[in-house]
Write a structure and sequence with these properties.
two-stranded antiparallel sheet; Cytochrome Bc1 Complex, Chain D, domain 2; alpha+beta; single chain; 4 strands; 43% helix; 154 residues; extended
C-alpha cells in the first residue's frame, strides 16, 4: 500500500514538472506608463530555469559552471549592462576570457530574453517637489550635532 502511494505521488510530480516545462509563460513589459502583456511560445529549461531560445546552451555552459541560473533569471539589462556584468566577473571573480563569437551569442541571448523592464516604480521626485524637511527648521544647531562612539574589542 505504501509502495502504491509512493508511485502515485512520483507519477503526479513527474507530470506536474512536465507540464511546467511545456507551459507558456507571460512576460509583462511596462513601456512609458502602459503595460503590454505578451505571451510567448518559448519553453523553460526544467533543469536550469533558463528560457529556451537561440544561445541558451552557451549561457548554460559558460555561466552555470560558476553560479546558479537563478542569478541570471533574476537579473535584467540591456546589452551594455550584461557586458558590464561579464567584465566585472572577469576582473573580480576570475571568469575566463570568453571567445568573442561565444560572447556575442551570450550577449544576444541575455539582452533579448532578460532585457531591462521597467518595474513600474515611479522615478524619484525632483527636490523642488518634495515637502519641506521638518528637521531642518525645528531644531537648534546644537541638537543637530551627533557624538560618535567608537567601540573597541577587548
Amino acid at each position: 500500500m505504501i509502495r502504491n502511494a509512493f508511485w502515485a505521488i512520483l507519477t503526479v510530480l513527474f507530470f506536474s514538472f512536465s507540464a511546467i516545462a511545456e507551459s507558456n509563460y507571460t512576460v509583462k513589459k511596462i513601456v512609458k506608463n502602459s503595460t503590454i502583456s505578451t505571451t510567448s511560445k518559448s519553453r523553460i529549461d526544467p533543469e536550469s530555469g533558463l528560457i529556451i531560445a537561440t544561445g541558451w546552451e552557451e549561457v548554460k555552459t559558460n555561466c552555470t559552471s560558476c553560479h546558479s541560473a537563478k542569478i541570471i533569471v533574476s537579473q535584467q539589462g540591456n546589452r551594455a549592462t550584461w557586458l558590464e556584468m561579464i567584465r566585472w566577473m572577469q576582473k573580480k571573480q576570475g571568469l575566463w576570457e570568453i571567445p568573442s563569437n561565444t560572447e556575442k551569442i551570450i550577449l544576444d541571448y541575455l539582452s533579448s530574453n532578460y532585457p531591462t523592464i521597467n518595474t513600474g516604480r515611479r522615478p524619484n521626485l525632483p527636490a523642488r517637489e518634495l515637502p519641506p524637511n521638518p528637521w531642518e527648521t525645528c531644531c537648534s544647531s546644537e541638537h543637530k550635532k551627533f557624538k560618535v562612539i567608537v567601540l573597541k574589542k577587548r
